[in-house]
Prior knowledge:
Layout: H1 6-12, E1 38-46, E2 52-60, E3 64-72, E4 81-90, E5 99-101, E6 103-104, E7 110-115, E8 124-127, H2 131-134, E9 141-144, E10 173-182, E11 185-194, H3 215-218, E12 261-264, E13 271-274, H4 279-282, E14 316-318, E15 321-323, E16 331-333, E17 343-347, E18 351-353, E19 375-377, E20 387-392, E21 402-409, E22 425-432, E23 440-446, E24 451-457, E25 462-469, H5 470-473, E26 483-491, E27 498-505, E28 508-509, E29 512-513, E30 516-525, E31 534-540, E32 545-553
Parallel strand pairs: 1-9
Antiparallel strand pairs: 1-7, 2-3, 2-8, 3-4, 4-6, 5-7, 10-11, 12-13, 14-15, 16-32, 17-20, 18-19, 19-32, 20-31, 21-26, 21-32, 22-23, 22-31, 23-24, 24-25, 26-27, 27-30, 28-29
Amino acid sequence: MGVRHPGIYNANETKPYPLDDRASCVSDTGQRLPDDIVADLVLRYPGSYGGYPCLAAVTVTPTLVTATFQVASTFADDATLQPLAAVSVLRADLVRYRAVPLSPQQAGVGGWLVFGGGALGVPYSGRFSKPGQGLLTARAARAYTLPPVRSLGVEGTAPPLVDVVRLRAQTPLEVVGDIREINGVSRTVAVIRLADTASEASATPAGTGTTTPSVLEQFAGGCSGRPESLSCGDPQPVQTVAGVAPDCNGIVSLVFNGCADAAPIAGGSGLVLDCALGLKEACLSPYLPDENGLLPSDLAAVVAIPSLPPPPPPPVSQGSLVLGPTGSLPYITCFGGGLASGWDLTGGGWTFAAPVGPGLLCGSEDDFPFRPARSLTTDNGVGMARRSVAVWDGFDTTTFHRTAAVSVFAPVPADARGFYADQLNAFLVVNYGGAGAGSYVYVEVDFSAQTFSLGRFNGASELAFAQVQIDAVGPAATPSQWYRLSCTVQPGTLVGQALLTAALIGPADTEGFGPTLVTLGPVLVNSYGDGSGLFGVAARFSASYFTSFEVQEAS
């Protein structure tokens, strides 16, 4: 069998696919699963087994490569797990990018797996006992609904009927084939129904002097007449109460509002409605005389002059933040008091911690220095194991004619901290959700790769529009230093286009931020949308810190 789609498989080897973004990709022993062992996966299973399919184990030895899959009932660590499928291939027979069928371990499970170059490389062994470690993406592993009727039989008497079954009915039943619409789809079905043949022939067979009753009369029940036709006999049944018909169970519910207190009459023949009100409470106050015997119509009309609303308060200085009237730009937050109003933590692991590192952190050029008590950070076990995004859903309704900026910091990693030395980055998020759910334009500084990028995240992967090697054009961007990311957005000439200009500034010292290190743009971005998305911040498998987030008008 030939190899198809090598370009797709090669791209999949550069990311954790087929694992979901919510998966930590870290085994029980703390080893991260290499991205290039599994290049693709298609797994299908009955949805009754569970809703969270995940990788259970991967082993690469000099002679054998194996992978097993399981499904969890919930995403919790103590969820019930069931095996789904496994695959085992001799290293001598393994061909990179060739599909290998899965061996099902449950009924109704099937699929195939494509091993990447990592399966032919360094030995690896990892077990993933919790759903949060090896959760599979929905594109790779998907449940399906079993047919509602898979057999036919009498419960407890004989094995159910399977394969080709011929149905035979006895009078007064009949079995016919018909076309019926089910959930908007026309389907061929077997219909089991009562056959009323008496109405089609003579009701009096020749020479008998008797009539053959209709099958409908046989099964009509104790009251074979119809109340709406007044054919039930006297006394006629009650059909409505004050024009209100009963529900399908023959129940009419009476709801009393206001002061009514309903009490049943002894013997069940009715209700007593009582309101504990006197004449004064029953009559509206404008129609009662006052203490002098005068009605409201006898009094002179009083004209009320409305008071003018107070003027808006002038801007006041608070620390290093310039706070104006609510709903006005510029908008600045330092996260010193926690999560500011209007912020939404859409994914990943966020927390608040005291800012670290040298330099000035938050405020304008006029009132440095200012160091808030806390900053927004992903410096925790959850945040460093996945992509984290936080967005500002505040009063501003557009990203056009705006400049957004944020101060960022990525500390030098230490082995004991548990995150990866090749993942030191920080993102400024632009137009989140403006061109599709979960998508956004980004400005990224990658301290590990020494790159500064302007690109788009489509909900699954990143694509850079423009990128520059920082240390090739000037001083390197040093971890454990505060830098500032900024992006100016202007509308393009066509609908859905935008012109973006990004800058990397820093590092910060006691006098403020340093000069601009790198500038990208203006870059013309198509499919930007109407600009109604959100600004925010993000990190990708990195312990990153954020403060001094600002949005202001751009000319």
